[in-house]
Write a structure and sequence with these properties.
- It contains two helices and eleven strands.
- It is mostly beta strands.
- It has a single domain, classed as Lipid/polyisoprenoid-binding, YceI-like (Lipocalin, Beta Barrel), CATH 2.40.128.110.
């Protein structure tokens, strides 16, 4: 009888675990940023930033490889720190962008590499071109937000892309083709 009861409990636990699925988290726009930098003529490193963007993470804490990420941001949200640089980026030399042009990233695979690290492969769509990119990601923390009193998660990630892959190679190699990307996001568990 005890063996039968134990087997039933284990089967129920296994079924519950198997039924677990990723939970939806939405990005906290006020605490999520993407920084980028590139070398300018060997003299300096130029920085820019995106913030206030939208996205969601389908987060499976028990099986992180089953998670996914989708982010979209308006190109117009780019901050360069100098209006003339922003205007040049929006010109025909680079984006020749419309007001509503967006950049997006959609994950296609997640490879867990450690207790809190993973490689997130996904499709980056920029300037009308979609290319695969790999993010080296780190889970910073999960838990209840001390002020919002709901589940929260924080992640950092890095990547390097070639701007020429996205038809943005003007002035390379004098202005570096490589663009380094640093990402830090907070996400809150979605209601409902």
């Amino acid at each position: 009888m005890k063996k039968t009861l134990l087997a039933a409990v284990l089967a129920a636990a296994a079924a519950t675990g198997a039924a677990a699925s990723p939970e939806k988290y939405v990005l906290d726009a006020g605490h999520s940023q993407i920084l980028f930098d590139y070398n300018h003529l060997g003299y300096s490193t130029t920085w820019g930033m995106f913030s206030g963007f939208e996205g969601e993470i389908m987060f499976d804490q028990e099986n992180p490889a089953a998670s996914s990420v989708n982010v979209t941001m308006p190109l117009s949200m780019m901050f360069t720190g100098w209006q003339a640089r922003f205007d040049h980026f929006m010109s025909k030399d680079f984006f020749e962008a419309t007001e509503d042009e967006t950049i997006s990233f959609s994950s296609t695979a997640i490879e867990v590499t450690g207790d809190s690290t993973a490689k997130i492969t996904g499709d980056l769509t920029l300037n009308g071109v979609t290319k695969p990119v790999v993010l080296d990601a780190k889970l910073n923390q999960t838990g209840d937000h001390p002020m919002r009193k709901k589940p929260w998660a924080g992640f950092d990630a890095t990547a390097t892309v070639l701007r020429s892959d996205f038809n943005l190679g003007q002035f390379a190699p004098f202005v570096s083709d490589e663009v380094n990307i640093k990402i830090s996001v907070e996400a809150m568990k979605a209601d409902g």
